[in-house]
Design a protein that fits this description.
This protein is an alpha+beta fold and 472 residues long. The protein contains 14 helices and 16 strands.
Length: 472
């Protein structure tokens, strides 16, 4: 009898539930999810959506894993004489990302390190021997950018300075993450051929053998593998391949840029796409402040590119925990590459300029030994067509426009694209929730009992430059 009122209660609409979780009201949200899941009229898709919100709360607890004392302890590794009033002042200013979960203040696990990205005052307080954040080798002006611009001018082409690279990418599920004898299904990101950007892809091998590579048209392409778990032993999956990556350089003359054509093929790149690209009142207000009365497409792009470039880079929460990434990037005070890219895409589309996504891995020459996840995009400018943009790297420090503006119309040759869109289905389809509902760079894994989240496995990406003749 006691359950009757609960069963009869109307399910909280999903948008209201999402907002409740975003505010940190987890206990109330959990009770509302329980009510919704008891509703016999709920269809399977809606049931999965409500159940995922419970999983989202679990993931958010993993991200917001620090209490105040733990956050201070991390900061004292770089500011040994950290004062309570300093921490309180930075906290009150919103510089140390936090969420009050059911009334308990919790800090994002990367908030202490992000503080040095967003606060000059915090940076000035660091101990002299504290390690500095490490930027990628092509995030600052260097010989490779000059090589690309010179090669493009000499050849008249937009795809130049190719690099042949061999990649070994692994996903290793931790020992006893699933019961022995159960089959683990794994998806490891794999590149698709993109003329003029990455070509001549050659498969070498996989562990275990028999990988199933998704069709080349798959927008989030992967190599799929299966293997049975063995008690007490990590379960390893690995792929090896080669490809040739080209740098891109498209010199844009603003005087030649035309209004966006009325082309049906461009319409999807102008549209809102919930949940992460929505033309919210806050987005419209930000756009108006930046763009003003400007109507020239290139100058609109340049204004928005520079505005988003001003947002400090910061280590990111897991994307699956964020209900609207472009809105988050607008308000958080920091954003990583994917968050900045989605914000810029939303702003460009709002202003009638087509924009789309790309992401994968960046790497380096062997002697440098760098690699990292990275997201960037492309913008459509008539008559040039689609041109690349990397707002996270942004403007380079040069008096020469071709070098200063390199990443608005160009890309270096040290990046592999795995994804030509975000939040696209994997092939074969995943049966359970993805660990990353937006991007696909580290991989995915699951078994019959459910998804295997990032805390249950590790990934690795290794690259080495090989002679261009290796294409044969």
């Amino acid at each position: 009898m006691a359950l009757a009122p609960l069963c009869a209660a109307a399910a909280t609409p999903l948008p209201a539930l999402v907002a409740q979780i975003d505010r940190g009201d987890f206990a109330v949200a959990d009770a509302q999810i329980a009510v919704a899941l008891q509703d016999p009229t709920l269809d399977d898709a809606a049931r999965r959506d409500y159940a995922f919100q419970r999983e989202r709360m679990r993931r958010m607890r993993l991200d917001f894993s620090l209490d105040a004392e733990a956050a201070k302890a991390q900061l004292r590794r770089q500011i040994p004489d950290l004062r309570e009033d300093e921490f309180a002042r930075w906290d009150a200013a919103g510089l140390i990302e936090r969420l009050d979960i059911d009334g308990q203040r919790r800090y994002f696990k990367r908030a202490p390190s992000n503080l040095f990205r967003v606060s000059a005052q915090a940076r000035a307080r660091r101990a002299p021997d504290a390690p500095l954040p490490k930027d990628g080798p092509y995030e600052h002006l260097g010989p490779h950018h000059e090589e690309i611009v010179a090669a493009a001018r000499a050849s008249g082409g937009s795809s130049v300075a190719p690099r042949r690279v061999e990649v070994t990418q692994s996903l290793v599920v931790k020992a006893d993450a699933v019961p022995a004898g159960e089959t683990i299904r794994a998806w490891i990101p794999y590149p698709r051929a993109i003329p003029g950007q990455q070509q001549d892809i050659r498969w070498i091998a996989s562990t275990p053998a028999g990988a199933r590579i998704a069709p080349d048209a798959t927008l989030q392409r992967t190599a799929y593998l299966e293997r049975k778990a063995v008690a007490g032993t990590p379960t390893q999956f690995q792929v090896r391949y080669q490809l040739t990556v080209y740098a891109r350089h498209i010199p844009i003359d603003p005087a030649k840029v035309l209004p966006t054509p009325n082309d049906p093929a461009l319409q999807s790149y102008l549209a809102e796409r919930a949940p992460h690209i929505q033309f919210t009142p806050a987005l419209r207000a930000f756009s108006q402040r930046v763009v003003g009365n400007e109507t020239h497409p290139y100058r609109i792009v340049a204004k928005l590119f520079d505005a988003v470039d001003q947002i400090p880079w910061g280590g990111a929460r897991e994307y699956s925990t964020i209900s609207n990434i472009s809105d988050y990037a607008l308000h958080a005070g920091h954003a990583d590459c994917g968050q900045q890219t989605l914000l810029l895409m939303a702003l460009l589309r709002l202003n009638g300029i087509p924009a789309r996504w790309q992401s994968g891995m960046v790497y380096s020459d062997d002697a440098v030994g760098y690699n990292n996840l990275h997201d960037w995009g492309a913008v459509y400018l008539a008559p040039y067509g689609w041109v690349p943009m990397d707002v996270t790297t942004g403007r380079l420090d040069s008096a020469q426009p071709a070098l200063r503006d390199f990443y608005l119309g160009g890309l270096d040759a040290y990046r592999i694209a795995f994804n030509d869109d975000y939040a696209q289905p994997l092939v074969p389809a995943k049966r359970h929730d993805r660990s990353d509902t937006v991007d696909s760079q580290r991989g995915e894994a699951e078994w019959s009992g459910g998804n295997l989240y990032f805390d249950q496995w590790n990934y690795d990406f290794q690259s080495r430059i090989v002679p261009l003749a290796a294409t044969r």
